[in-house]
Amino acid sequence: MPPYENESTPFIAESQQKGSKSLRQYLLAPVNLQYADLPLLACCFVTGIIDAGAYNAWGTFMGMQTGTQFTGNTIFLALGVAGLLVNRAHLHWLRSLLAIGTFMLGSLVSADVTRRYGNTRRLSLSLNFLLQAVFIIIAAILITADVIPENNPNSDRILIGIPFLAAQFGAQVAASRALGYGEIPTTVLTSVYNDLASDPKLWTWRNAKRNRRAAAAILILGGGICGGWLSRLTEGFAIVLWIGGAMKVLLCIAWLAYGEAVE
To answer: Residue 156 and residue 90: Cα distance in Å, rounded?
Structure first.
């Protein structure tokens, strides 16, 4: 065997190792947080469109677990315990309890995993949003295949779909917290409205936090309007979920292409 064949092997291995190492470094690098609010604002639209469709079809919120008056699953659960939901959908209180529990589970698992592997790393964020996308798509497939009825709020089979949607919203909120944008909770607007109205710099020309809060409220409202209109269509809720799942896939890819944090 010629000597150069043996000699070339270390160079090939070294080159491959260098390429592999650079890819690993790229995936594990923290993203630039300067514009990390943009994906979270996109999540606000996803919340609006899915929650509007879910409430219209199933009578239960997937993202809003707290609320006032008759909004939010916590209030629905409280009314169920008090026996005041007798004229509403069958086992409405159980759906609310299931949504709250799986939402918290999604938050717990997502927060724990991202803390272990880096809250702001490209790979952690991308996998987080990939999981969210997969959960939404699973729910969309189950509805499209008629495993779960789309517009029958009295069906117990709705309990199959709730964990997927609620858990992914929990992961979504965990991501917003990990990125440090507390002014964009992505699912509930009570604190946003309060912080917006009580902001001492409300009328200041340059106010990034005010702008994010206002954008979050507008996008959730806009998503809710779109979800409401789509729900008028045949298989409208399934369409809503396919749109939400597609947006989460795009966000998953976007995190991989996001700029690296500047040291």
So the answer is: 8
Angle at 129 between CA 255 and CA 173, to 5 degrees: 110
Residue 97: CA atoms inside 13 Å, Cβ hemisphere, count?
9
Structure tokens at 139: 């729910």
The runs of H, that is alpha helices, within the chain are 3-28, 37-58, 73-81, 92-117, 122-144, 158-178, 190-197, 208-231, 236-257
The answer to whether 227 and 52 have CB atoms below 8 angstroms apart is yes
d(CA 23, CA 65): 39
Can you give the pTM of this predicted structure? 0.82
> What's the 3-state SS for 48-77?
HHHHHHHHHHHCCCCCCCCCCCCCCHHHHH
Structure tokens at 68: 């006032």
- Mind listing the pLDDT tens digit for each residue in 93-142? 788 788 888 989 999 999 888 888 888 899 999 999 999 999 999 999 99
